[in-house]
Hints:
The chain has three helices and five strands; from the N terminus they run H-E-E-E-E-H-E-H. The chain has 111 residues and is an alpha+beta fold. The chain has a single domain, classed as XisI-like (TATA-Binding Protein, 2-Layer Sandwich). It has a five-stranded mixed beta sheet, covered by helices on one side. A hairpin with a 4-residue loop joins strand 1 and strand 2. It is globular and about 45 Å long. The two termini are 24 Å apart.
Amino acid sequence: MDSLENYRQIICSIITEYAQIPYAYGDIQRHTVFDRSCDRYLLMILGWEDVRQVHGCLIHVEIIEGKVWIHRDGTEDGIANEFVIAGIPKDCIVLGFRSPEMRKYTEFAVA
């Protein structure tokens, strides 16, 4: 299996695991959105917390030019670390939610 297909499987598996975790407050559903043809992977939340509607993106990941870009990470522990444990090298993960200036101080890829 080539590395991109391996990355796709890892991303989908980990996001699916997060989708199974029940939301602690309110009646919130979690929806996975996987677009394998464009390599975009999201975990969306939708529902109600008391009288307030909750709608947003918890996780947004893309594969761009062979690297895994994390645009949004709303997890407590950091999804990048889970990707590393699952086999994606740190130099193939970009913390896209950090500015390019700050990325060079992380242990992950700059771009």
